[in-house]
Amino acid sequence: MTPKPLDGVRVVDLCVVWAGPFATMQLADLGAEVIKPENPFVWQPMTRGAMARPPAMMLPMTQAWGGGYPNNEPGERPWNYCPTFVSVYRNKRSFTVDLRRPEGMEVLRRLVAESDVVYENNATGTMEKLGITYDWLREANPQIIFVRVPAYGSKGPYAQARALGVHLEAVMGHTLLRGYEDADPSSNSAIYSGDFMAGAQGAFAVMAALWHRERTGEGQLIEVAQAESAATMFTQAIMDYTMNSRLLHAIGNRDIFGKHPCGVYPAKSPGTAETMDDHWISIHVEDDDQWQAFIEAIGSPDWAKDERFRTNAGRNEHRQELDEHIAAYTAQHEDYDLMHCLQAAGIAAAPVLEASRMFDDPQFRARDFFRTQTVEGAGTKEYVGPMWQFSETPVEFTQPPVLFGEHNDYVYRGVLKMSDSEIEKLREGGHISMDFDPSVP
Amino acid sequence: MQQALDDVVVLDLTQHVAGPYATKLFADYGADVIKVEAPRGDITRRLGPFMGDDEHPEKSGLFFVLNTNKRSVVLDLKTPEGKDALAALARRADIAFQSFAPGTVDRLGIGWDWFQQVNPKLTLVSVSNFGQTGPYRDYRLSELVLYGFAGEMYSMGETDREPVKMFGTAALFESGSAVASGAMGALWAAKRHGIAQHVDIALHETQAGGVDRRHAAAIAYQFSGRKTQRVASAAAGMPQGIYPCADGFVDFNNAGLRYDRIIDMVGNAEWALDPRYQEPTARLMPDLVEEWNSHFMVWCLERTKKEIWAEARRAKVLCGPLFTMEDLFHDGHFTNRDFWTDAEHPVMGKIQFPGRPVIMEKGGWELRRPAPLLGQHTEEVLQEAGLPAETIGKMKPTEGVR
Q1: Contact B309 A161 (CB under 8 A)
Q2: Per-residue model confidence as pLDDT tens digits over A113-133
Q3: Residue B219 and residue A384: Cβ atoms within 8 Å?
């Protein structure tokens, strides 16, 4: 194994859902040892699945990423295989402990003493109820870096508001700003771009805080108010309001900067949206020269030579007519053929890929993006790869998506140096397990 | 106050959104970011929104937000003098970022080999559409094309319509934040191990490898053979999705997972207490869901989005009102948290924008200077780099550049 940027950094991962786990996944990919304490008696919804033991009949009735368990069966330990979450559990370690009991908190205290960072993004009040505060952590480790990711921040009237990424994006304006121009916002699907922003900025902040600690010896408290960190994505709308008091509205797939055509057009499809093999091509022509190149690339049809389409202003004014022509053309062609033909002419175009089609794409393959991992009970599968390619410290997937409690032995013996009798006592108390307690639904 | 990264020097050759957003984070947390612009300037200087709708290169609100705390140097890299000046800047930098098309890097002769020759300790982060290798290396991308190809756009929208993207350049901002975390990792590799390296960041891989649904759709297919269908978020559960209310819409995605809290939120209304709705499988039965929604929609339509959110917060229900920018800008929660920052800009005057993305107790975000004017710091920075006055005089630009 090559050296890694964050060798020697240990992170305690008290994260749930996506925003937190995505941050710690990045730290783990960069070489930090990320350890997840998990509780066999407490189910955190939307963290290892919607339910610990989902009834088999429910699986086909939920979206694929919720119900698409290996071989479409929940199996004996469903919490290890929920597709919504497994990918972000690579390169991490998991052990179990019940933090609601004093001896559980003592285990955490000892782990924190041996760590550099504690990262949490739980519903507001959850940590306090357990007694995990910045003061408590600092007592265990004066140099600790504690990252909290409250939805709207720890102070203010919304401090107690419950939210997933999709809700705070609504508050920050995104849900009214995106989607079809001619439909109301309920036609939008639930998305979680706020989790992306909070996770990447949170990982960045941890590394900046480690940098600060290296220089000063000081740990610190970091607050990633998820809504605030998401706001950047809507910069054009925010600034148009603060500078010009203008409210922007959803414009579908059109370009925010007004360069047309910019759209998603139908391609020759083997099936329909119901069978999930409808094919689409996105095309963006960004200036008048590109428009001329576009015309040539599609064989100079008469409609395209229309003077009204020569300038961007004209293409914008007559965009509905233009889009109909383009769609009639693209519908007769394969999406990949269209991409190569248009890209050869210098025009941004690519298929809108349904996720499974990524695995057949030559670019992803040429760069060895996907990583094969073997998870006990789920077989050997290909997972999405890392976000960066380093020439000297490559990201390696050394630990497949971690099973619940997979590293009990490593953490209790290897890290905490507990004796056999101490471990036995915790095991008798139900702290150490690879199963959720039968009382957990 | 000392900032966390104020001992880091960044050479920034990126433009547009993703690269500049990454280097902005470095600048905002203290790094000395030298932004090298071509004589025409970063393309976002010509992209809106503009203050007062005046399409002036110093009046773009987008450019402003992306470039706070940086210094701008104008260099023409096609000239030998420009390239020499770049070398002088590279010698003083810890990390450089560039976002030229791979073909342009070759043409300008400022690839990884060149940087290594100039400064063997320098880390180089290259941000490009499809990476520095592979059959699509020279292909183009824009926000829509990127997100459609590598983000989870296929499943966004209505089943019988085309897939639909996010707002504006949201995906490029996501990718920019991923560039920042990767680059910060590379900086740590240099500090901890003395390793200088080339980081090849492909925008399409930041999307496919990011957290917003694609990784889940991909492994769901690997596990089960199932694909992810495009479905709208319209009212579809108990509750689930987006509901109209008296003055707009509210989002209740996944709120139905805690039906006990829904009952509390609607004030124990009799209809909500019906035991048929409380079976775990109730939300999978379309007729029952429709019946339930007919009650709940009335409850929503009798209230404003803010009233609904207040009830939801009280009952700890997952909920988000669909705010406009006007709602957001005047909301006391955010103003009281100092979410909005005021800056004074030499051309635009007073400007308000979202300041810190993250609150660090020590060494954190600070506004040291607004976004730079084009070439505002050319002389100052080249002097610091030790270039003789005569040479600097020659670099002095062409029209419109200070």
Answers
A1: yes
A2: 999 999 999 998 999 999 999
A3: yes
